Batch of 3 targets.
Target 1
Amino acid sequence: MLTSFMDSLLCCLTGTSTNVVAPVETSEAADGYEFVEVKPGRVLRIRHIIPDRPVVEEPVGQGGTVSCKRKITVYRNGQLFIENLGDKTMKELTNGSNGELEPNSTTDVELTDCSSSSPSPPKSGNGNGTNGNNGALETGEGGAATATGQPGQLQQPRKHKRKPKRTVVIDCERKISSCKGTHSDVALFFIHGVGGSLDIWGSQLDFFSRQGYEVIAPDLAGHGASSAPQIAAAYTFYALAEDIRLIFKRYAHKRNILIGHSYGVSFCTFLAHEYPEQIHKVVMINGGGPTALEPSLCSIFNLPTCVLHCLSPLLSWSFLKAGFARQGAKEKQLLKENNAFNVSSFVLRAMMSGQYWPEGDEVYHAEITVPILLVHGMYDKFVPVEEDQRMAEILLMAFLKVLDDGSHMIMMECPEAVNTLLHEFFLWEPETPPKKESKPRPETAKVRSDTIKATSETAKVRPLTANQSSSNGGIQATANSTAKK
């Protein structure tokens, strides 16, 4: 504690943080680590493992095609109206995982932090409160409907159809196939969150590299063994997202799978939205709800850097308490060895204050057509399970799995369960519906008449049989004999 106090005092006097980023003694190219300069002076550590695949690789399967049809309407009062127009295959995908949305169903939700609530729609003549086939609701200006046509009663206010602020229509087809380790066109990207490093994915990187997958895991700027610029603008969401985008373009294959944890889920969402053709599947582990990022004004991370450095032991203890379901010797060792929360006070403060991403709202998430697996630890105190449930409702193709024995660092607490769950999702592909047998078309009157005509013509030119030829020969012989007489 005295050392921490002296370091914080030195930090206040010099204006720089004395924290040292994670050690780099294992960061050698021979160990599967690479250093990539994404910008001048901005170097990221990457763990890149290319497994030894067999000479004869297994061919990629046919997979299944999913029709992604959705209409998203945003109204001026902040209400989000989603209409799913999927087919039977889409229904089978969503059953039991995304609220059991039926085909041609509608989802009516409110945007987060909406200041005004939507008035309740009056009941129409059919009693379903909808207008037309798209299910758009109509509301009166005064809210509740009143009776009309009778003297002495209040007249019903005139109904006005709400004008949407923005409408987004998604109509595409996605081919989803099984991604095996023997497929050379598959790459796995692992992205960590605030305060962590690529070391938190140690169990996953070892497991999937043994299965034959090519894995890529970067250290974010200021984390792990990556460079730590001493400027707050280097840790905004847009700066970090640009780093991840450059890393993705450098190592991407034809079919890429993104696995993100906590804050890293936002970067996975960004890539899935910007590169839908290259992103095949996404895994979001304790990522939170589909809300736009905005830094909190009343937060402990707004304190000066020297104060945060003085409080670093308390912050580490709080992270252990909230990030792990148990706080035993095993969890303390995992926290220390895997650099799960080992970052300088300056970087921590800049990361928390730089989480500004207004574009990543619910509409942004609703536009994503990539199949997504949501993994949530039951005892997570950072991210409530309701936020992941909200995410599953907004996403087009989402599967939510809640693990009972883990918390925020579920991939470190339950590595076997997480690895099995992720591997099953990688191998999953939708079933292709059987082709319908084509029935013969009924013959029309014209076709029947043509058939009868062709049959009669064929009968006219039919060759003679043996009896007919013999009888004809006898008649001809008699005629000749008669002529001779």
Target 2
Amino acid sequence: MAESNDLEIKQAENLTNTKETDWVRLQSSDGFTFLVRRKVAQSSGTIRNMLDPTSGYSEAQSRICEIRERGIIVEKLVEYMAFKTHYESVNAKEEIPVHEIMERIPPEIVLELLLAADYQEM
């Protein structure tokens, strides 16, 4: 009984110690690693669930998320997450430069990127 109380206390401490300034590591299937702020990574619904301390996933403890995609795809996902996080608090009257992010996507990876973004709930 005391062990379960200790576990609950540790989980509560982890919840309070989780800061938006924490960094997480995203790893691609071909060995590329990207260090990303937790706030940026959590713009993906899938990664948000992985990093949730109450989820019980090992990624919540290790802060390392394996993404089963090629490095170029993970790179473009990270770029989009950063773009989305940066512009989510923009005034409605300001124009968001969507063409900038679209110009950075090579046409040969568009379909693969679309499928990966769908899986990552972006």
Target 3
Amino acid sequence: MGCLLALTDDLLAEVLVRVPSPADLARASASCASLRRVATSPRFLRQFRSLHAPPPLGVFFPDGAAFYPALPPNPTSPAARALALAADFSFAFLPPPGRAWLVRDHRDGRFLLDRAAPSGSTAFTEVSVCDPLFRRRILLPPIPDDLAASVENPYLQRGGDEGLHSRSNEIFLAPRCNDDRGDELPFAVIWMACCRGKLVAFSFCSESRQWRALSPPVHHALSMRRVMGVRLGQRNHAHGCFYWMITLTRRWLVLDTRKMEFSILDISPVLLGRTMMFSNQITTLEAEEGRTTVVVSDLFRADKRCVLYFYTFMSFTDRWQLQHKITLPEEWGDRFRGIIGAFEQRLFIKLDHPKENLGDPVEQNVTYFWFDVKTMEVGRFTEISSATVNEAYLYTGFAPSLSLPSI
């Protein structure tokens, strides 16, 4: 240890940046003051975070704004517990009333929330980007009137007609820029609304603090042919592209944020012969060499089993290549409720409580498991005592000691 401490800070940084995981870095930095000084410097943390993907720390539920940390023996459990204690996931630092704010997205340590505007509009809401660990917030300016004029009778995308959390917009954070641009990291917000026969979209840049219009496609899949209108399904992301299933169709809406261009794809050949009732039956994952993996969940089978089909493509306009399929454990057949995310070779899967325990409130738990697609190993990730959990995010991040302000 004495020889190691004789090194300069730059050389210590070169040693520490090569540790295999954030958990290993946390242990190393706790061993002595010199290593901790180097490992917690903003310059080093930006370099380390650029080389290591943030690991899964828990599951976040927008309804009620609750974070459930990873449970032991998951290796990220200590960091997850530290985050749960340090961060304010109730967002009490936002302007009151707190219950009016709804979490819409999270990415890179930032959370995007909105609430109904004084006008009562469910489309043009007040929007804030927050950092719950450092308790920072930025209120975004409203969308200018000349842009807002193009939005006509947008279809409801979330909630009911009169609910506090009803929304007629789809709003989310775009992928961040690199961490080497200084202490203030830029971010972008995308706002979308489905109107009759068209999609309207705007983007906001934190550097310019201005909204601008995007050019979405005009397509018959966006036409009003049903009483419910056009509703977008679960949002997926991989390699800078966002994907939505257009409800009651077999088409994908795609936004490539690298070009800020929209496309609509017909994916019905891949789904042929499969019953697709829920948008979370399709999940996108980032694979190696810039490829995207698409996992299609075949749920409604005569044998009551759940089968996952893995397809890959380099560009979303390419033909999907079937790589392999996996049949999940038989006891998961009636309990499988979708994939909420992935990390390296592991899928994170939501399972409802067993059917035979419906009458026992103690057993009405929702459990999130990880499933290793290479080794077929299974482990419990986290669990909550609730029978009515809907939307959930896999939360990835770093321990508070390895975190920097995101806004």
